[in-house]
Specification:
39% helix; 12 helices; alpha/beta; 2 domains; 225 residues
Length: 225
Amino acid sequence: MLLPNNKKYLLYIKTAKTGGTSFLEHLEGCGNVKKYERRKSGRKLSDVKENDIIMIQNDILMKFSKQYPEIYRDSYKIIISRNPYTKCISSYDYLERISFLKDVNAKEKNVKELLMSERYYEYDSSKYDYKIECDEKDWKLFSIFGHFFLEQSFGLDKEDIDVVIRFENLEKDVVDLFKKIDINIKKRMPHKKKSIVPKMELDEDVKSLIYEKFKADFELFDYPK
């Protein structure tokens, strides 16, 4: 693996509903992927050496960057983006299918109600490493609302990102990335947990709400309004 700009590590910032599980498995085909793991005393990244691949969840990005500033600075950072309109639809459908909303007796019955809920700010996973700092009974609520937060809520900005893989062009962008950094994997990346996005028509009211909530991400990742 040859990383540009004298970078020492490949850092994958994993986000929800962007094909991340499939991409992570594909990366694991290149070697052992180091993870920012939860321990009783906090989180730790163990046995890291130059040219390692590291994966972190987007909602603990700021915590990671403060705990390991040199590794963060010296990492070639990649992320998978997705159009916020389809990401919101896919997230809601996924949470409904796995019964998360039912499990927590969610009052929010659609995308609009989730985005407008008072709990949207109460269960903000950018403010807490919730699996360490919060009661386990609230983890599902943090997970639910975490699907509907700006990437920039988690401390991400344009200057931090070296490569953006677009979900809409996932397989080709992954092939292009691997060529760029000289990773030779002959197998194509399967999208293992691919969900069928419902043909849900967003009315103008909901589209406007999503755009206002995610305006910074529309601009950051260059998606049309």
